[in-house]
Amino acid sequence: MSVLLSGCATGNLDGNSAGADSAIVVGSQDYYSNEIIAEIYAQALEAGGYSVERDLRIGQREVYIPEIESGAIDLFPEYTGPLLQVWEPETPARLDADVYAALVDAAPAGVRILDESSATDQDAFVVTEEFAEKWGLTTINDLSKVTEPLTLGANSEAETRPFGPAGLEATYGVDVAFTPIEDGGGPLTVKALRDDSIQLAVIYTADPSIEENNLVALEDTEGLFLASHVVPVASDALDKKGTAIVNAVSAALTADGLVALNAESVNEQAPAESIAKQWLTENPMP
């Protein structure tokens, strides 16, 4: 049965009104991939009879986490490892199952961690193919073989994140300078890599630019980057039926599928709304 997409529907759902006064607020990062997932959540809920208010592309965690914690945002697509490090910075968890279990335990009161997806959008250190071949790089540890200065490029907040220069030196003994590039591993970051103004960049593994530009994601043998699966974070405003809808989205979203969604946005410049609508047509919810 296909999902019928309808905006701002109302009705009584498990005893809760889904009218305008109780709209589910769906948020997203200021990142195209995250916006697509949030739009899928929103449209799936609307198809289920919920009124939805969108608060999309609102920034990075420093901006939106307080809104999630306060209940101002009811539903948000997140990533297990990076979110866990917000609430438990010194977590020893590294593998998927451990990270997810720790995240469920670490969530503050009023915040629920729903079912994680098999889809990943993992932070990774990326180099050009030419640079990898020159120095024989396949793992992050191999960066210790590079005898010329290294500069890491990423969004400015990465400088103080656990995987930033300090974390890289502590975990792998690799010293790097840092250059902020505020496009979330986008075309400016790729250009800086190819121009050799940076030698190392943080780019998400689901970004189609990695394959399209023959970039190499270095293997993280020591677990500097935690497992990072797409996971919905919800407030208590999302009732049992709404939770089931969002969990069904998580069950249907795959790693390859996320790369394909991202490619539609990057290569075809399709808006998140239409990408989400097509995905739900191809992946009807129960």
Q: Rg to the nearest angstrom?
A: 20 Å
Quote the CATH topology of the largest domain: D-Maltodextrin-Binding Protein, domain 2
Q: Quick one: CATH class of the largest domain? A: Alpha Beta
Helix content: 25-40%
Instruction: Name the quaternary structure.
Output: single chain
Order of helices and strands: EEEHEHEHHEEHEHEHEHEEHHH
Q: What is the approximate shape?
A: globular
Distance between the termini: 7 Å
Query: Residue ranges: pLDDT <50 for 5 or more in a row?
Result: 1-20
In short:
With 286 residues, the chain is an alpha/beta fold. The protein contains eleven helices and twelve strands. The chain folds into two domains: 165 residues, D-Maltodextrin-Binding Protein, domain 2 (3-Layer(aba) Sandwich); 95 residues, 3-Layer(aba) Sandwich (D-Maltodextrin-Binding Protein, domain 2), CATH 3.40.190.
